[in-house]
From TrEMBL:
Gene from which this protein is expressed: Dvir\GJ13246
Entry's transmembrane regions: 52-76, 129-150, 156-175
Protein name in the entry: Golgi apparatus membrane protein TVP23 homolog
Keywords: Membrane, Transmembrane, Transmembrane helix
GO cellular component: Golgi membrane
Length: 223
């Protein structure tokens, strides 16, 4: 029996850097940099981008389905591990994981560091890249699923389904972290749309209107 909780439970007993305290050891002078975690940001996009590129162009380099399958799955696995354990923790202050207690119950933990002091240290460029990569790549795999399905390429359909499962797991986990484990995805999406609609409405109402064009303009030259 599984349950979902939101709390701070150490991933390992010897976790030397507790969740949310990674940046406290960082030099404060790096806060003004455009990217405070450039290598993490790079690999956040590299593995998932490489898996998509290999899937699209593997036929140019090899006619073996097994070789293409293995390489794509390897990059998908590396991407899943990197996004779940590294980039989400460092780039946006989110973490999700699972543990089994002494009674054999499985618990899903969705953690989020929402303190103002921690949020002020999150790099907005890296945060934007994290969410764009997390959302856009499953859309590509969804498109590949439709192409493989209507093209009757069932062996490739299996590979695409693996990719969708791994990408969707991270996407679902981080959405739960960001919006809270007690809120379902429908209500989270509804709240997001409401927030954006209200924000746009306020911007339209507070935006100064331009001066109206003159109506009584007399021609200066008559032929």
């Amino acid at each position: 029996m599984a349950s979902a909780t939101v709390r701070n439970v150490p991933l390992l007993d010897d976790d030397t850097i507790p969740f949310g305290e990674e940046d406290e050891m960082r030099d404060p002078s790096t806060a003004a940099q455009k990217y405070t975690h450039p290598y993490v940001t790079f690999f956040h996009l590299f593995f998932r981008g490489a898996s998509i590129i290999i899937y699209m162009f593997c036929g140019w380099f090899s006619d073996s389905f097994i070789t293409s399958f293995v390489f794509v799955v390897l990059f998908l696995s590396a991407d899943f591990w990197t996004v779940k354990n590294i980039s989400g923790r460092l780039l946006v202050g989110l973490r999700w994981w699972n543990y089994v207690d002494d009674d054999g119950k499985s618990h899903w933990v969705f953690e989020s560091k929402n303190s103002p002091s921690y949020q002020s240290r999150i790099n907005k460029h890296e945060q934007r890249i994290f969410w764009l990569g997390l959302i856009l790549c499953p859309l590509f795999w969804g498109l590949f699923f439709l192409l493989a399905l209507f093209g009757l390429k069932f062996k490739w359909l299996l590979l695409v389904m693996i990719a969708i499962a791994l990408n969707a797991a991270n996407l679902y986990g981080y959405i739960k972290c960001n919006y809270g484990a007690g809120k379902d995805l429908n209500s989270a999406a509804t709240d997001f749309v409401k927030t954006q609609f209200f924000k746009n409405a306020v911007d339209m109402m507070t935006k100064p209107s331009g001066a109206p064009p003159p109506t009584n303009v007399r021609p200066t030259g008559v032929v």
